[in-house]
Amino acid sequence: MKISLLPDISGISRDSVRPLLFMVLAFLLWVISFYVWSGISNLESKSKLNYARFEELTEVVRSYKNLPHREDRSSAPEDPMVVVSSLVESMGLKDNLIQISSLSKGVSVQLSRLYSEKTLSFIQELGKRGLSIESAEVRAVPEGAFRLLSISLIITVSQQ
Q1: What is the pTM of this model?
Q2: Integer angstrom CA distances of residue 87 from 35, 67, 138, 140
Q3: What CATH number does domain 80-157 carry, 1.20.900.10, 3.60.21.10, 3.30.70.60, 3.40.50.1820?
Q4: N or C, where is the chain less crowded by C-beta within 10 Å?
């Protein structure tokens, strides 16, 4: 007993069904291969785009690392009060300190009887430690043959 794999279709001979079936099968293979090829092409283009983006990112990181004076940038201090008081102590300005107080936006400092060189070095050290002067009042006070400075500063964390 022979079992036929091809069904009987009325009006079409069995000999013409087989070539039609091969043509349909070939068409399906062609459609599947086209779909796979376009998917691979899409993956390749995405891969090239991601590679280009990664190269651009690494170039940005390299250029950032090579910026000049990168080591000179100090991080913002945690507490300006601690920084200012340690600076006053390290520069030997304890005798010149009149008042130091904390404000909502920073620190208020009053120093008196300062030579101009000491005043400038104090201001430069503040900048090196990540602090900036928001407001300043400077008075020249005559003392003997010299003119000494009396300063009032409002010091805040630098916005870099």
Answers
A1: 0.52
A2: 71, 29, 19, 23
A3: 3.30.70.60
A4: N
